[in-house]
Amino acid sequence: MDNDLTGKTVIVTGASSGIGRATARALVKAGCRVTLAARSTDKLTALATELGSAAFAVPTDVTVAADVTALVSRTISQFGRIDAMFANAGIFIPGSFAEGNAEDWSRTLSVNVEAVFRCIHAVLPHMIARKSGDIIMTSSISGCVDIASEPVYSASKHAIQSFAHTLRQQVAPAGIRVGAVSPGIVLNDIWGITDEQEIERRVAERSGIRSEDVARAVLYMLCEPRHVTIGDLVILPQNQDI
Question: What is the structure's pLDDT at 8?
Fold first, then answer.
């Protein structure tokens, strides 16, 4: 890895917990300036306080167009540029499709797919004008293989995979890299696993990975030299059978 991230500005959605929070911490440690976006104002404020002047908290509902517009404009006002967007915010609703409901399906697609489109669309003009930028989306192993226990979530992540592959071709001539990181079981809030002893046990069993493991993968994607694109990065606990 030889692409120095010092001074780069990165927007991280879903920054209040899990992968987003871990990645924000890793980015600041690497010398980045980070805009933290999520709905939870209290959690964002606490994280921004922890990270110091390199972090800028912008409470954002990524399903609301005006919020996303404000997120981008406030980032530019604060830091003067946007070098990368980590479109990470997402929700997970498993279960039987036959017993599900349309509200849950709509919410899943709104957050996991439409909001990703909206966030990326908002930053692209700035990246295209500068002829440089990085876009990374949080996909899932569920976007790479069909997971029978989570058909709607799996469909949303398959959509992200297709979007990443096609968008990459459109924006490559503008010097913009597009990649998707696809984790397996991550031991964090989205899986309802927050007890540190439980996390330690699952890590020792190699049946789950930490949010910090995914964060390192994201930094690896960003740190590759500009002529290299990591289009897809699948990261799994060693014992997860896909």
Answer: 98
